[in-house]
Design goal:
Blueprint lengths: L5 H32 L2 H25 L4 H8 L19 H18 L3 H27 L15 H16 L9
Helix pairs in contact: 1-2, 1-4, 2-5, 4-6, 5-6
């Protein structure tokens, strides 16, 4: 068996990332349902599962970038531009998974803001897992030139700066009181 190409690595670990996000959506939906039922133990189990899936998403993101900047520029990035894709501003933001996750995070924001004491430790672990994921995403973006230029979608601004703004607003959904310090 031959070694995977940079394109294979990029695509394969992004598929893995999106599978983890799909699981995260399911787990957070189940977390919400268990809270409504008042079943805190089951809600804690679902939030722990969501935490693990968030960590797995971060690992997938890191592994997606396990090749050189030159290989990204010459082999991978062109596969995400026209005519290989329909959109001139291709982005993971366009996925249904992203939209569904943002919807559930927005719905959960007031719940996260007023969680029962019994769930607060697991919630903090969930936030730390998000911070780990966002750090991994930023590192891959930076590795492939995101601190010098724009992304495919936001070409006019610094990609890591845009990513930092997104991360801050998303963090506000899951950590409305900003109780967990960045590490």
């Amino acid at each position: 068996m031959s070694n995977p190409t940079p394109k294979d690595i990029w695509q394969g670990f992004h598929w893995s990332f999106f599978i983890n996000v799909q699981g995260l959506i399911i787990s957070l939906s189940r977390f919400e349902a268990q809270l409504v039922l008042g079943n805190l133990l089951a809600a804690e189990t679902e939030l722990a599962c969501a935490t693990d899936l968030m960590l797995a998403s971060g690992a997938s993101m890191e592994l997606a970038g396990s090749f050189s900047h030159i290989q990204y520029d010459q082999i991978v990035r062109p596969t995400m531009t026209q005519p290989q894709v329909r959109s001139a501003n291709f982005s993971g933001l366009m996925s249904w998974e992203h939209a569904a996750l943002m919807q559930i995070w927005k719905r959960l924001r007031p719940i996260f803001e007023n969680l029962p004491v019994e769930l607060q430790a697991q919630h903090q672990a969930f936030i730390q897992a998000y911070l780990s994921l966002s750090k991994s995403h930023r590192a891959v973006c930076e590795k492939f030139g995101g601190s010098e230029g724009g992304s495919l979608r936001f070409n006019q601004s610094c990609a890591v700066d845009t990513l930092d703004k997104f991360n801050q607003s998303r963090r506000g959904l899951i950590d409305p009181k900003y109780q967990v310090a960045k590490s």
